[in-house]
Every structure is written in structure tokens, then in C-alpha cells.
Amino acid sequence: MRQRSHDGTVEVLSLKGVSLQAHRGEAVALVGDNGAGKSTLLQLAAGVLEASAGEVWIAGRNVTKERRPWERSLRAQVGIAFQYPERGFFAATVREEVGFTPAVLGGSPTEVEEAVTWALSLVGLDAGYLARSPFRLSGGEKRRVALAGAVAHRPSLLLLDEPEAGMDQDGKRRIKGLIERMRAGGAAVVVATHDVAWALGWADRVILLDAGRVKAAWDVRTGLGEEAAELLKLYLWDLGLLHRLFREAVRRGADLRHPYKDAASFVEALCGALRAGKARGGESAP
User: What's the predicted TM-score (pTM) here?
Assistant: First the structure.
């Protein structure tokens, strides 16, 4: 499958032979390295990107072929929170941002307000945020607003792109609770994430993408065998520990990239900094 930019000038082969189904009441985790195709897959499913090859089916309808007449219905069926939430924001207030889709779908002012209140409570934000600008919030707060906007209309398919990024443990617990609540309500939930250990706490299935292909897939409900352990071990870092090591190393003068996107490369670089520091007898790393 190829993705094409909105002006049609750039075309990139990003997914090859990927076939994925997510059923109602099921939570699916998409894992894999940067560039594996996780975000592309979610955006195609949401109708944000247009596929020049392949097909996208939602609720038994081929939205690739019926895109124009089905756009309103697609909006009602699907909710998506992007990896960089501020890129999707457009409204002046959190109330308008979260309530946009319920309003577009024809909800009355009372229904829209109820939807906004419910969605914000689900992500741990109170009425004090309603009049605030979504652009002036912290990174974690922006992600929560984006999540609220994705679920406010109670979609049957919820797509989340790295919702845990930048969240503390309380934030991750809230997202897990949101996923479980949406799943219990009959929605299919598909989440792209780098945090496999966190995903194993809520996912029914785990799909490993590699260079635009499905490399492996497992049903977590039946357990993970040796193959899964071997393939997933590179993604099962303790990110909290690595973050603490990163901060301490930077405090001591080491020039390292944050471990979130590529934990393996961070550990390799940290080991290099340790060896260099030991050779100099200095304190460039912990």
C-alpha cells in the first residue's frame, strides 16, 4: 500500500501486504521500530491518508472505494489521536476542540456539552480546562485533550498513536483505563506504541510491524511463547529506568539522545559514554 500526500505530489511505499482486522471489544497493540508503518496504518484506517493501492474496510464497508459518500459515517465510526496532538488542534478552546466531532455529527448543544464533560473526565481533566487554549497546555495535557477529542463521540473504532508518550505512570494508568473502558463498551481499539511492557498489560493481540510488513502477531490471551519473547525483547526496556539514566548522564555532561524512540541505540551510546568517561577518568556518565 502506498500513501500519497494531500496535493498528490509525493508517493511513498510504506505498507506492503499488511492485512489487519480489529474486532469490536478487542484491543490491539501495534509495535515496531520507527518507520515500521504504525502511524501510516492508523492514518489510513482513519481516512486521513488516501491509499493509492490496497483497500481499507470499516464496519463491513469498503471506504477506499466509497470514500466521498461515506465520509460523514466514517467520522462517526472512527476516533483518532495523533502522535503529535498539537498538529491536529485548531480550536480556540478545549471545549470547542473536544466537542467538534459530536457537534459536526449533529449533537444538540446539551449533548455536545455532556460528551465533552464525559470525555474530559475519562482522561482526568476537569471543567477548569474548558475555556483554556489547547495550544497553551503542557505536553501531557495536550495528549489528554487529544484523547478526549478522539473518544467524545464514542466511536466504534478508536485509533491511538503513541498515547503514552510523555506520560507519567498515573497518565499511563489513565490511558489503560480509557482503553479498557472503550473496549468494554464494544469499541475496537488499535494502539501504536513503543512501550511493549505497558501494552502487554491491556492488549488482546500484539502485532509486530517491520519495514511496512507484519513480521509476527500474537494473541496475548493465550500466552506468549519463546518466539514472541525473542522478537519482543528489544522492545521490553524499562523506559522509566532509562529515562532516569538519561537525565543523570546529561546532568554529568554526556551528549545523548532521549531513549524513548530507540532504547537499544540509547543503551549502546550510554555504554560508549561510560567507556569514554572511564578512559578519561572523568564523570561524563553515571
Answer: 0.78
